[in-house]
Design a protein that fits this description.
The structure is a single chain. The chain is of the alpha+beta class. It has 3 domains: about 10-170, Jelly Rolls (Sandwich); about 185-230; about 240-300, Homeodomain-like (Arc Repressor Mutant, subunit A, Orthogonal Bundle). The chain has 11 helices and 10 strands. The protein has a 6-stranded antiparallel beta sheet. A 4-stranded antiparallel beta sheet has the order 3-8-5-6, with no helix packed on it.
Length: about 300
């Protein structure tokens, strides 16, 4: 990671799951020449949020700044310098090796020939939309609200990583080589996932668990599901739960906390926030004022 051993570099964990971890780092280095040799102990991707640093590889070097993504391959060695005072700060994404291989394999099948060093580049472009999504993810992780579901974080973080990698491979001129599979395979995968979600609507599901249940890798599964349905797997599950709640409310459900937990939400407030964002009113308002006919009409007219 950037920063010399004699300069304090602070790391702060923002999120960690079996699929991906997200950390913030802050380096308080002043401008100066290259420090001692360093080595990466894992494969990581860094999106800068402030400042700049240079990595030196023999006589060549690469400058990292907020306009690009930076890749650290496991076992790679380098020295670090800082072109300006003020230090640097960024977000570190570390993807589980099996998932990282799966993402890159769809862009470059030769990754299986170099499993320990999957990145054939040290930097790549970071488009504005991706940078903004990354900042929004960090903001929500720092807020730490109870409504921030691991399912959503996994899908969002992996898609950011996938988009960054795709841009880096495109810039390098590597031919895109997605292994799409057959239409029938994708239909079967999406339908199997729908059945699994319907059968376990009230459980605290994770992306990894659902992917294993349908015998697919997490990233491939999430991508195919969105292609087939037009929405992310997390949003699909949320809509299933919210629409199910309309029927329960129409049936006279009194305990909103019990309803929330029974449908897989972490709490009454989590359920109420999601419900209000989707329907424009609270569950208690709907329970008080909506007739059974109105509830059915809301569910029918709601656009995905």
């Amino acid at each position: 990671m950037p920063g010399r051993p004699d300069i304090p570099v602070a790391f702060r964990g923002l999120y960690d799951s079996p699929l991906v971890s997200v950390r913030e780092y802050r380096c308080r280095a002043c401008g100066g020449g290259p420090g001692p040799e360093e080595a990466s102990d894992t494969n990581t991707l860094v999106l800068m949020r402030h400042g700049a640093f240079c990595r030196h590889f023999g006589r060549s070097h690469a400058t990292a700044d907020v306009n690009q993504a930076v890749f650290f391959s496991k076992g790679s060695t380098y020295r670090v310098s800082h072109p300006v005072d003020g230090g640097d700060r960024g977000t570190v994404f570390a993807v589980a090796p099996r998932v990282l291989q799966d993402i890159i394999r769809e862009l470059d099948p030769t990754v299986d020939d170099r499993p320990e060093q999957p990145f054939p580049f040290v930097a790549g472009p970071c488009e504005s939309t991706v940078f903004w999504r990354h900042r929004e993810l960090v903001r929500r992780l720092e807020t730490g609200t109870e409504a921030l579901e691991p399912f959503w974080v996994d899908v969002t973080a992996l898609q950011i990583v996938a988009d960054i990698l795709e841009a880096a491979f495109a810039q390098r001129g590597h031919p895109r080589s997605r292994r799409e599979g057959t239409e029938a395979d994708h239909v079967a995968l999406a339908e199997a996932a729908k059945s699994h979600l319907a059968a376990r609507l009230g459980e605290r599901l994770t992306l990894d668990e659902v992917a294993q249940a349908v015998h697919a890798s997490p990233f491939h599964f999430a991508r195919v599901f969105q292609q087939r349905t037009g929405i992310s797997i997390h949003r699909y599950l949320t809509l299933l739960r919210l629409r199910a709640s309309l029927e329960r409310l129409a049936g006279g459900e009194e305990d909103l906390t019990a309803l929330a937990l029974d449908l897989g939400f972490s709490s009454h407030s989590h359920f109420a926030d999601a419900f209000r964002k989707e329907f424009g009113r609270t569950p208690s308002e709907v329970r008080r004022n909506a007739s059974l006919r109105t509830l059915h009409q809301m569910s029918k007219n709601l656009e995905v």
